[in-house]
User: What shape does this take?
Amino acid sequence: MTERPYPHVLIAGAGLSGLALAQILRKEGVSFEIFERDVSESARSQGWAIALHGPLLAGLKESMPEDIGPIDQTNHLLPLDHLPAQFVFYDANKPGMRIGVNDDENGHIVRANRQRLRDWLRTFIPVQYGKRVARVDDSGEEIVVHFEDGSLASGDILIGAEGTRSVALLQVRKHILHGQDVLTPLPVGSLVGEIELTGADFARQLELGHSAYVVMGDAKDQCSMFAAINKVSPDGKTGHYYFLLHWVDEQATLSTESNPYWAVNASLLVERYRRPGIVLHAVELDASQLPPGRVMLMGDAAHSMTPFRGEAGVCALSDALSLGRTITAIRDKSAKKADLESLMVTYRDEMLKRAAKSISVSNPVIGAYARDPNYKLYTCGKEALPLPNEVINI
Ligand SMILES: Cc1cc2nc3c(=O)[nH]c(=O)nc-3n(C[C@H](O)[C@H](O)[C@H](O)COP(=O)(O)OP(=O)(O)OC[C@H]3O[C@@H](n4cnc5c(N)ncnc54)[C@H](O)[C@@H]3O)c2cc1C
Assistant: This one.
């Protein structure tokens, strides 16, 4: 019998962070398996666009295998990628205000269509689909993961990368937290819609912001509207848009998975655009809740926040970079028990600190902007500054 290489890593969840970690382990030649609850890569819509920026981009370039090609192939504006990624802020009560950020020499931004990003991250990764983690056992010798279909897998390290939304099924997190519920619905109501635009309507939206624009409300309303392009048709003539209306709303904290607040109230107002809404959750763990061992978390499973400022996905992928280095070091040093724990503690502490910083700037944006007339808007790691008007023809 051939001996299993050490460590053999099990990754639960083939989302952004799980796949990024799998790529890093593939590049480093670390043994791994990755499991996904969805029955196939196309079982579920992968959501809209996501902005990647800052040191993360350099980290991805360095850590991803070269054979998957450059990240630019995920650009949401293709084939109109002569337009740089751009986010613009407006204020419903300040007609002349137009401030924002561009992808430029002062900070690279890759706004990725999420489906393309997942496809890029999935290249050459043998994801095992239809494997919903149901239970985790740690015998002391190895970790055994039991799947809902009755099968199991064993390894030396288990990484929980199952995101926030599988609330009831976050067995990996439950294994660590002994059943504690760490998910808190945030006091933010949300409404979601999608629309396809062509001709002058499409051009006008691009003029308002190549990638996305946000309209901030006043102190009374405490709301914001986010309108963004997810992708462009191959002929460059149709823009696939989505929009999110967010407002400060204490009642949203009463949301449950079975009775989400948005569904019973606000979605009735805009019947035409009725879509499944979003209950925004916060997860913020402290070190005592995440013992540094052979089971570790990353991404939304470890920390969850609002989409404001585009921090969450960047955090999730930064975790993958950091954990990739940690696991490679565990392999190189053949680290076990206390040696493994001391490497994991470094990852955990850096990850929790980075996430806490992102949570602290992301969650309060709408209320803070409404209360503070001098509040500075940031996105993609940059301060929003005045931008000239644009004229765009399709
Ligand atoms: C509306 C919206 C807009 C957003 N916009 C941005 C943005 O612009 N910028 C940004 O940085 N972030 C954004 N985010 C956040 C970003 O999407 C997440 O932070 C990111 O996807 C987290 O990655 P992840 O790998 O932790 O989890 P996910 O990408 O959610 O992946 C988790 C995977 O685990 C699988 N899974 C779940 N349970 C199990 C189980 N029991 N067994 C096996 N597999 C399981 C799921 O099917 C899924 O494939 C946004 C989020 C929302 C909701």
